[in-house]
Amino acid sequence: MSEPKHKKKAPAARVAGPAETTPGQSSPPAAASAPSSTGDESLQKRPPKKTPMWQAKQALRYQRQAIIKEIMRERKAEVICYVGGNQTEITRDDVVFFGDLLYNVPRGANVDFLLHTKGGDMDAAEKLCAMVREVVGTKTLTVVVPDYAKSSGTLIALGADEIMMSDSSELGPIDPQIVIDDGDSKRMSASLHSYLKAYDEHASALRTNPNDPVARMMLDKFDPAKVHQFRLTKERVRQLAEKQLRDGMFKPPRMGNTTGIPLKLMDVEQYSSHAQMIGYSECKGLGLKVDYRAPGDEIWDMYWQLYCFQRIEIGDNPRKKLFESSFVCLASE
Fold first, then answer.
1. Per residue, what are the HEC states of 4-52?
2. Does pLDDT of 325 surpass 80?
3. Of 74, 151, 170, 220, whose CB count within 10 A is highest?
4. Are residues 168 and 299 in the same domain?
């Protein structure tokens, strides 16, 4: 657009001289020099922009956080995510990252907690669940399981008010695992319950026949101190599972089988493999409160899309963990 023909000219600049005064008025202090209209001033006023390369490298993160914000609008809940590679475990080191996830979550908010883990330290799992429950208060905590939350991950899920699951979702048994020597100088994971059961069987056989050489030879392979510690650990898992249910989906006045469900999840006769799948239908059969979402459900499809992006972020690094919310995106190994 052309400028008006009769545009008023700006006054000509002049060199500053001594301050002018009127009679009876003292000279004012020297005025601060006015900011120059150079490029420096414009740089100060202009906020820094993300560079094209930065935006390109962060594109998937922006997409994930856009999905999270859309879920938050639809669910009227905060969303936090813990996604671990297949060689990661829940540990005490997760606490500092998890604290960042909860840093901007308002107290007394509904929270959706997307969880993908093969398990880990049950004491650390208890702490993570306690941290998020403290923020949620009397509102609703929903653990979202797009793929699997096994072992200690299942213990976390038991502490929710409800578990959102679909056809791809699974929990797992909560019988504790131990690492033992297989006799060929190799370490292997085994069920603590099976270890104690074998000990009890040999001890019973020896009581029945004190001269039973097989029973005596087998008992000599067991460490009494370990047997005692393993019994305490087994009882600790049962008590923790009951507590999680009482604090979560079966918090009074809601009713549920807080004693029977943990015993079933610890039953190695029912679940002979620690990695055994417990799908949404079986979870319902156990008495857990499950919010089933069929594939194609709007909310579930958003969660599944988010999870797929997060697995791409983890990529080929099986030891990588991703902690994510609408504010935070942190990775650890």
1. CCCCCCCCCCCCCCCCCCCCCCCCCCCCCCCCCCCHHHHHHHCCCCCCH
2. yes
3. 151
4. yes
